[in-house]
Design goal:
The structure is a single chain. With about 230 residues, the protein is α/β, with parallel strands linked by helices. It contains twelve helices and five strands. Strands 2-1-3-4-5 form a five-stranded parallel β-sheet. α1 packs across α3 and α2 crosses α3. The longest helix has 14 residues. It is elongated, with a radius of gyration of 19 Å.
Length: about 230
């Protein structure tokens, strides 16, 4: 995952270890299920090896949990989740509730079109997975900043999550254009650039939030829920 993702390698590793122990599996046994060595499993659990999204999906399958488990486990053990909003979303996704006022509100949130813009494919993939675990469904990703403005001209977007340091067109230049031509779309800047002057500039250009990677899951979700408006 890397240290710029919503969930860190160490948090993912702790969740893998916890679930493996729940199933009474040794590192060697889990390694056999995954076709990797015991040492590789231990490096994943220690957080010393970065996990690709595809490998995380394989591990989730081997441990008989949805991939959402790895987000919820880490946040729960830090005392952040499950929030009431989170519980409703998960229950709705699993078909455990229907026709309730809470579900109607959540279904409105799930209809919103969220656009993730970052040239790091792993970052956008893990962010997309996290938002899907929180009940959001209409999520699109863009890796090439040159395609952002044409996309916005053709699509209704409810929220943009924008990186700054990208090839071709920098995020602050995109933010300026979005603020001028698509000022109705809220923008959350999520970047590794920890600079107060740049943060203030982005706020002046219309950014609702300026989040410095790595971002905690609860802070990111709070920013998304505050920035986005239910469809009415």
């Amino acid at each position: 995952m890397g240290n710029n993702s919503i969930v860190s390698n160490s948090e993912i590793g702790a969740a893998i270890r916890h679930r493996r122990q729940q199933l009474l599996l040794s590192p060697s046994q889990l390694g056999k299920l995954l076709g990797i060595s015991r040492q590789q499993v231990q490096r994943y659990e220690d957080g010393t090896n970065s996990l690709q999204v595809e490998k995380l999906q394989e591990i989730a399958h081997a441990l008989s949990v949805p991939i959402c488990y790895f987000f919820i486990y880490g946040a729960t053990h830090k005392g952040a989740f499950p929030t009431q909003c989170n519980v409703v979303r998960i229950a709705a996704r699993q078909g455990k509730i229907d026709n309730s006022p809470a579900l109607c509100v959540e279904s409105q949130y799930m209809q919103n079109h969220i656009l993730l813009i970052d040239d790091d494919e792993q970052v956008v993939n893990i962010t997309k997975l996290f938002l899907e675990c929180e009940g959001y469904r209409n999520i699109r990703t863009i890796l090439d900043s040159r395609t952002v403005i044409p996309y916005l001209k053709e699509n209704e977007v409810s929220l943009i999550v924008l990186d700054l340091m990208m090839p071709h067109i920098m995020g602050n230049d995109l933010l300026r254009t979005i603020n001028n031509d698509f000022h109705h779309i809220p923008v959350i800047v999520m970047t590794a650039v920890n600079d107060l002057e740049i943060a203030e500039e982005c706020k002046m250009l219309g950014a609702k939030e300026y989040l410095v990677k790595p971002v905690s899951p609860e802070r990111f979700l709070h920013a998304v829920d505050n920035a986005i408006s239910p469809i009415t």
